[in-house]
Design goal:
This protein has helices at about 1-10, 25-35, 40-50, 60, 70-80, 85-110, 120. By secondary structure, it is an all-alpha fold.
């Protein structure tokens, strides 16, 4: 019921005029519907589409970048369905994503969700990678 409707809606979004681009928030909402319904296979399929390895992966799915919530939702559902091998894959993906974020942050200051650094914008931030504010490249 609800998972079918949610999947139909998320698949219809990019076909709208003008198209509604899929993003992590929309996909995570779909994953939450899967979680409420206990539908781990559909959540896993959605995750695989995002990674470009799912059945009929469309460019609109592969353009979505998973975030922490995505990894947590998928891992939780797979854990509940006792899919240990798939959970390990999700954990490895999450660790790689976190490492890329740490690496990017090391050269650019704070997290992209942090407030922008006023000193960086003026060309005068002396904290560099240790700055807790975002440095817009």
């Amino acid at each position: 019921g609800d998972v079918d409707k949610a999947e139909a809606l998320i698949n219809e979004m990019p076909k709208q005029k003008p198209p509604v681009a899929l993003d992590a928030r929309a996909v995570n909402t779909f994953l939450r519907v899967c979680q409420r319904a206990g539908d781990a296979p559909r959540a896993w399929e959605a995750y695989r589409k995002m990674k470009g390895s799912g059945p009929a992966s469309a460019p609109c799915w592969t353009s979505v970048v998973p975030d922490d919530a995505t990894y947590k939702l998928v891992a939780r559902l797979l854990s509940q369905s006792l899919s240990a091998r798939d959970v390990k894959d999700v954990i490895a993906d999450a660790a790689a994503h976190a490492a890329r974020d740490r690496s990017a942050r090391a050269t650019s200051g704070g997290d992209a969700s942090a407030a922008p650094c006023q000193f960086w914008n003026a060309g005068r931030c002396d904290r560099g990678a240790a700055c807790v504010f975002f440095h817009d490249p």
